[in-house]
Amino acid sequence: MKKKPHSKKSSKTLQNKIWKLCKEITRKNYGNECYTCGAKNLSGKNWQTGHMLSKAVLDPYLKYDLRVLRPQCSKCNIWNGGMGAEFHRKMIIREGQTYVDQFFRDRKFNVSSKEAYSHYESLIHKYELILEDLNGS
Length: 137
What we know:
Blueprint: H1 8-30, E1 48-51, H2 60-63, E2 69-72, H3 74-79, H4 84-95, H5 97-106, H6 113-134
Antiparallel strand pairs: 1-2
Helix pairs in contact: 1-6, 4-5
């Protein structure tokens, strides 16, 4: 019997859950200072989670990759398009060229739309464990 494909709605629900976990983990790991401009005490809608590269150009494998998520103010993340060049520059300074190079090598790895659903499920499990550790549970 053929396996029924997952609906877009269920995939979207998984992505929303992953994104919520990504934001929580990023905030716990990096605090409330904008990664790109240094604005301090971010809160509410001004405390966003930005990507080194636009989420629109990332494959499902890297869209929710914690390695390239950092806190950003809404000015940098929304109004200034994510400040990609500055984000990239700071990633090299703070994490190292090897770290950044590995991310770009990983961009060559693609998850097909058929594999994305199970990839999202595994990320949820992995990120829930990370969050439990961060919360000291």
